[in-house]
Design brief:
Helices cover 26% and strands 21% of the residues. The chain has helices at residues 18-28, 49-58, 67-79, 91-99, 102-108, 140-145, 165-168, and strands spanning 8-11, 35-38, 62-63, 114-117, 122-125, 148-149, 155-156, 163-164, 174-177, 186-188, 191-193, 203-209, 213-218. The radius of gyration is 17 Å and the shape is globular.
Length: 228
Amino acid sequence: MAPLAVRHVFIGDVHGCLDELEALIRKVRVGPADRVVFVGDLVAKGPDSAGVVACARELKALSVRGNHDEAVLRIRRARKGGGGDLSRAKKTHLRVADSLCEADWRWLEPLPLWLSFPAFGSLVVHAGMVPGKPVSAQRPEDLMTMRTMRPDGHASPRLEDGLLWAKAYRGPERVIFGHDAITGFQREPFALGLDTGCVYGRTLTALVLPNEELISVPARRAYREIGQ
């Protein structure tokens, strides 16, 4: 039972919304004994991606890699000679890459695609999992971008392509995820979606375990229109 005594604070997609992240941390009363875990997409779209990464570093937080984190890391790899076409990089990702310091990169570069929390019977991924496959057998792009399951059983990033994956997923682990701000908060028997659209003017949400508390703070404003 000892691991369950440590509070774990799982935070939905922050997207550079530093003021809201700091407000949520205060509301949750995060202390030095607590473990903070992000579901990915700490950066891009919002006003202060570098500040969010610095805050995560200071908290000694864990995180999985989101699709926007990966987009910024691709720029980093290309600039270091690792290949890739910078001409296809979005301006929002280029601005984030230009704002990060070496300490930020050292924190971002090793972010995993999933994290396991056996004490809670839970996994964290950014976007989703194809039902019936262990996390180690999932495609990286699905873990970072999927939203639905097509009728043919393949994952899709598009909401209109099929059923929300979380409704089809049957465990065994519960999956804590983000990515789908359009759908918003999701609670299914074996999946919990924490992207409540902070950057779009809604809320930033945390799940606090082991007590199963859901705590949110409102966005100060909408930094982007939904879907952008």
